[in-house]
Automatic annotation (TrEMBL):
PANTHER family xrefs: HTH PSQ-TYPE DOMAIN-CONTAINING PROTEIN (PTHR47326:SF1), TRANSPOSABLE ELEMENT TC3 TRANSPOSASE-LIKE PROTEIN (PTHR47326)
DUF4817 domain residues: 62-117
Protein name from the UniProt record: Macrophage migration inhibitory factor-like
Source lineage: Eukaryota, Metazoa, Spiralia, Lophotrochozoa, Mollusca
One Pfam family this sequence matches: DUF4817
Domain of life: Eukaryota
């Protein structure tokens, strides 16, 4: 028997027994599945609707709106009249008109608790509070080199919460390796080194191979004085925390200091160049005079 002509017996409560083909049976079964899915979705929708009816204050009202409703309803004898609705729309807009169930639940809540505010929410309390942030700030200002683990132990909060608190306070972890004293002459040497390095990069006779580059770098380094190299080997020392404002202040001071010394250095270099050019002109004039005396 072919599948298309195969018959199945389906029992119906209303019309008794009747015969269906295989394709019709598949269509009926598909409609049954679709009906089950639709039934489940409708059940969920009705459940949400019932929950909303049980708590009509799910329509979010501000504290001012709730106080306004309670005051005006009690003035009109405890009834949510049309005058109260129009007055509410004039003050808060036509789209914000609450349902009568919402008003009824709000009045019941006010009579029962004496307040129109919501109950405190149940859930995990916030760890990084304002008190914790103030405590972390005081400890970091007192000891900036304190590690996060030690800070976590002293504040008695988890390491993750400590990291979150430091991040909210905008403290940046900075690990310093060596601390050196910067002297006034170091700034000028820094500018000299930067100028030399810039000229070294912009030179036309740049090395083409690795051996030429090594040879040139070696010869240049040998000509630099030890005290000039020392001022550029000054790095950082133990761990400390600096705020973003301190970073901006420090960078501004450094930039202003370098620009000041750079302007002084530029004037010095210009004066030296003038002296050198004048000296070369004098020597050339002297050589020309000596050369002409040979033929006299």
């Amino acid at each position: 028997m072919y599948p298309e002509t195969e018959m199945k017996l389906v029992k119906s409560i209303k019309s008794g027994d009747f015969l269906l083909s295989n394709s019709e049976f598949r269509q009926l079964r598909f409609l049954g599945f679709a009906g089950d899915i639709l039934n489940r979705n409708l059940t969920n929708a009705y459940a949400k609707l019932r929950a909303a009816k049980k708590d009509p204050l799910k329509m979010v009202l501000t504290l001012q709106e709730r106080i306004f409703i309670v005051e005006n309803v009690f003035r009109d004898g405890g009834k949510y009249t049309k005058e109260v609705q129009e007055s509410f729309q004039e003050n808060f807009g036509a789209e914000r008109l609450p349902h009568r169930n919402c008003v009824s639940a709000l009045l019941h809540k006010f009579k029962k608790t004496g307040s129109v505010q919501d109950k405190p929410k149940s859930g995990r309390p916030k760890v990084v509070t304002d008190t914790v942030l103030q405590n972390v700030t005081n400890k970091l200002q007192r000891s900036p080199r304190k590690s996060l683990r030690r800070l976590s132990q002293e504040t008695r909060i988890s390491l993750t919460s400590t990291h979150r608190a430091v991040h909210q306070l905008k403290f940046l972890p900075y690990k310093v390796h060596v601390v050196h004293e910067l002297k006034p002459q170091d700034s000028e040497k820094r500018v000299l080194f930067c100028r030399w390095f810039e000229n070294f990069i912009l030179e036309k006779d740049n090395p083409r191979t690795t051996d030429e580059l090594k040879q040139k770098i070696t010869s240049v380094i040998q000509n630099i004085k030890p005290d000039e190299l020392e001022c550029f080997s000054k790095h950082a020392a133990s761990r400390s925390f600096m705020s973003a404002g301190e970073w901006r202040t420090l960078s501004t001071v450094i930039v202003d200091h370098i620009l000041l010394h750079e302007s002084i250095l530029n004037r010095t270099l210009v004066d030296k160049a003038k002296d050198k050019s004048a000296q070369e002109l004098f020597l050339n004039k002297q050589r020309n005079e000596e050369f002409m005396n040979v033929f006299v």
